[in-house]
Write a structure and sequence with these properties.
Length: 414
Amino acid sequence: MKTIVLNQRKERDELLSRPYLTRRSNQNADTLLESQLIKLITGPRRVGKSTQALLMLRDKNFAYLNFDSQPLLDAWDANLVMRMLDDVYPGYEYLLLDEVQNLDAWDLWVSELYRMGKNLVITGSNAKMLSSEMATVLTGKYLQIEMLPFSMEEFFDWNKLDLHALKPEQQAEGKVLTDDYMRNGGYPEVVASRPLVRSYLDTLFDSIVWKDVAKRHSVRNITDLNNLAMYLVSNFCNPLSANELSQELGFSSVNTTKKFMDYLHEPYLFYYLSRYNNKLKLMKKAPRKVYVVDNGFVAAKAFAVSENLGRLLENQVFIELIRRGYDTEKAMFYYRSRNDKEVDFVLRKGVHIERLVQVCYDMSNPKTEKREVDGIVECAGELKCSNLTIVTNEEERTIEKDGYMIAVVPVSKF
């Protein structure tokens, strides 16, 4: 066990020696570390959770355990591990547990460490950590920091440009980067080497489906699970119901489809957006729109006959709203009016609808403009909301219609 812990210390020190981009965050690392609550960093695989944890702790005396290690899991003995940590990291103040969800009954062990007064930072790639395990044993004992692939701002930071302060001579490069980000996404591993996007994300997608879903849930019919994942990524931004999916894919039961859809959300691969309705029962019955965590997965996996820039932009805006803290249970929906006009995003704070957001890649065609404007205005009337935005690729102006002022903003400013 001591050899395993010593080897992981070498791994930790090697990781700490590398240069990293400091991610944008609303939370101050020192303030977080001063809290005795567990610091839980969650998000999809390979988005930089471990890096973020290491950067938080870089100048501190901290111990490190990486549970993406079969030797550690095979030799697991909690008491022995704690003795070895004291040996290898004398007087450590913080304990970083990386990908801790791989350890059986990890939540009980973490709860015990918390009671012992350990100051813990833990990372995990599974949304279920929050919904079930964290919610029961560790209620009220943790702060959550959710990480996603690079935002558009961070992608520009990486390329040494400030998205919000481009000089005239940088405008052309800014347009190229904006288009690149929309098509290829922001996974940290591929922002530096764009030619690798398809092969890297193709492998990562398969790894999430097989390792984080099929293996974790002991799925026997992996072909059906994989077919569903491929269908969802090819039909991103479309409303789909479990009944339709069951028929389309020839699944034996609707319940299996629902179960598989939930499984694919757990590792943050897909999100599902409900249709807004004041009646909860009707909301549950309506089809949900499907979004994927990063546009790069669409480039890598989707079966597409033609590129759909409108849907790529919509998916990008959805993930940005998730990044801002709008969750798909209480704060963000889509909406269809009585006349079947649609608005992409209804944003809610408490019971108050604060904003409607429509996404349209290009509104230069008058027919397109009329369709988008009529849609958002009709929905605004039914939902009694006057804060209206249409996000485009490049256009910026204000449109007045039926007493409503609509802000048309380019995605870079949104």
